[in-house]
Design brief:
With about 475 residues, the protein is of the alpha+beta class. Among the domains are: about 50 residues, DNA polymerase, domain 1; about 110 residues, DNA polymerase, Y-family, little finger domain (Dna Ligase, domain 1). The strands form four sheets. Strands 5-6-1-7-8 form a five-stranded mixed sheet. A five-stranded antiparallel sheet has the order 16-15-14-13-17. The protein is globular and about 70 Å long.
Length: about 475
């Protein structure tokens, strides 16, 4: 634990959905869901408008459609998200050499290592300057948490959402954590939370009062020891630049134990894709895929498979994780799953089986993209096209939400395709909401296009953050100990 709140955690707000709203004026202020659109599709991100209707990430898209039938359902545009992420990470790199990306839209920054902050006042000024810079360069908002540890900085950014900043002053950590739900602590999902609740522990204060021995008895030695330290606000993990990391991994704890083997497999595949996103955010590849499974009784199993060469291909990692799952007994339920990649490298070797995997990935994406958007007020069910049908080829060429250019009407995006037609809304990030036109899928004047920048003329931040104030006086320019959204 540091004596000054110089660890910053940035989390972009509803990143994929916010980027789509920024790119598409007609969707601003409306419910937007980004993810797979087929019958097995899963929500990647939902806008705050969609979240108010009950839609959330990792939810099956079919369920999301029932909750929000009039939302816009879009296929992810990773080229756009990666471009915006690069802009954000470049700004973070100006603050410190120690930037630890967690995904395309989330990272820790060691401000002390960069000399940009050494006390509360300078940390707050840096955080506010970062939020301003991100909006000026990308047009999007991010939430910032500042604290003396990574755990607390992440909690602070979560509390600051959306579009806010929260600084946890040194010495106030335990008082701040005490009344919070045990669910605020990393690794405590609903299943663990229910287990602790049955033991009479619902707040972080309850965990601290119970003591380490009791927590070890309840949840096991490793988890109990870590849980007790977190309840005391203790976390000494350093910010590790991704290029210095030995592995990249992601994991999720679930609302209720998973018993359905198909659902477990789907979650493993989703985590594999998230893991590759983080791998690519660091421009790395890896050779060994690791699967982590925590079962209903808190026992944890790990399995690994070493590939023939480093990869950053989502299909290769996903299929390897799926093979590893086949060797794990999930009878009784699963409360946590994780997928990681180790043996990191700065390059990717060609995998002999990657080409076949790419073909399977393309076919799956095409199936997911083939369904036209639902009719207003409900879902529309359409048969999946045959593997080489014209409908399948159209779905590959015109995925919902992706960019197009028409020689007469200019830049637009696909609202949907089906029955030999593609519907396009013509608008740009800086224009008014545009008109909608429908074309034949083989219209020679219509072609796929690259995404436009979200900001037409981004502000020049090439000299930032040289002008940020630095202070050891302890004076807080905002006049308070905390700043909340």
């Amino acid at each position: 634990m540091r004596p000054a709140p110089t660890i910053l955690h940035l989390d972009m707000d509803a990143f994929y959905a916010s980027a789509e709203q920024a790119a598409k004026p007609s969707l601003r202020g409306k419910a937007v869901v980004v993810g797979g659109l087929g019958p097995r599709g899963v929500v990647a991100t939902a806008s705050y408008e969609a979240r108010r209707l009950g839609v959330h990430s990792a939810m099956p898209t079919a369920q999301a459609r029932r909750l929000a039938p009039n939302a816009a359902y879009l296929v992810p545009r990773f080229s756009l998200y990666r471009t915006v992420s690069d802009q954000v990470m470049e700004l973070l790199g100006r603050l410190s050499p120690l930037v630890e990306p967690l995904s395309l839209d989330e990272a820790f920054v060691d401000l002390e290592a960069g000399g940009t902050a050494d006390d509360s006042a300078s940390a707050r000024a840096t955080g506010e300057g970062l939020r301003t810079a991100i909006r000026a360069v990308t047009g999007l908002s991010g939430s910032v948490g500042l604290a003396g540890s990574k755990m607390l900085a992440k909690i602070a950014s979560e509390e600051a959402k959306p579009d806010g900043l929260l600084l946890i002053e040194p010495g106030t950590e335990r008082d701040l954590l005490a009344p919070m739900s045990v669910r605020i602590l990393p690794g405590v999902g609903p299943a663990t939370g229910d287990h602790l609740r049955r033991a009479g522990m619902t707040t972080v204060h309850d965990l601290a009062e119970a003591g380490e021995a009791e927590l070890v008895r309840l949840v096991g030695k490793a988890h109990g020891h870590g849980l007790y330290r977190m309840a005391l606000g203790l976390d000494d993990r350093p910010v590790v630049a991704e290029r210095d990391a030995k592995s990249v991994s992601v994991e999720d704890t679930f609302d209720v134990d998973l018993h359905d083997r198909v659902r477990v497999r789907a979650e493993v595949e989703r985590l594999a894709v998230r893991c590759v996103e983080r791998l690519r955010a660091a421009d790395r590849s890896g050779r060994t895929v690791v699967l982590k499974v925590r079962r209903y009784d808190f026992s944890t199993l790990t399995r690994s498979e070493t590939l023939r060469g480093p990869t950053d291909d989502p299909t290769v990692v996903r299929e390897a994780a799926g093979r590893l799952l086949e060797s794990v007994d999930t009878t009784g339920g699963v409360r946590l799953l994780g997928v990681g990649v180790t043996g990191l490298a700065d390059y990717t070797q060609e995998d002999l089986f990657a080409q076949a995997a790419d073909a399977r990935e393309l076919a799956q994406r095409a199936r997911e993209h083939s369904s036209p958007p639902p009719a207003e007020g409900g879902e529309e069910s359409v048969p999946e096209p045959e593997p080489d049908s014209a409908e399948l080829l159209a779905a590959r060429r015109w995925p919902a939400g992706h960019d197009v250019h028409h020689e007469e009407h200019g830049h637009g995006w696909v609202q949907g395709s089906g029955v030999g037609r593609v519907t396009v809304r013509f608008e740009e990030p800086w224009s008014a909401p545009g008109r909608v036109l429908t074309f034949r899928v083989d219209d020679p004047l219509l072609r796929p296009a690259d995404p436009l920048p979200l900001v037409r003329e981004p502000a020049d931040y090439s000299s930032w953050p040289a002008s940020l104030p630095k202070s050891r006086s302890g004076a807080d320019p905002s006049g308070g100990g905390e700043s909340s959204p």
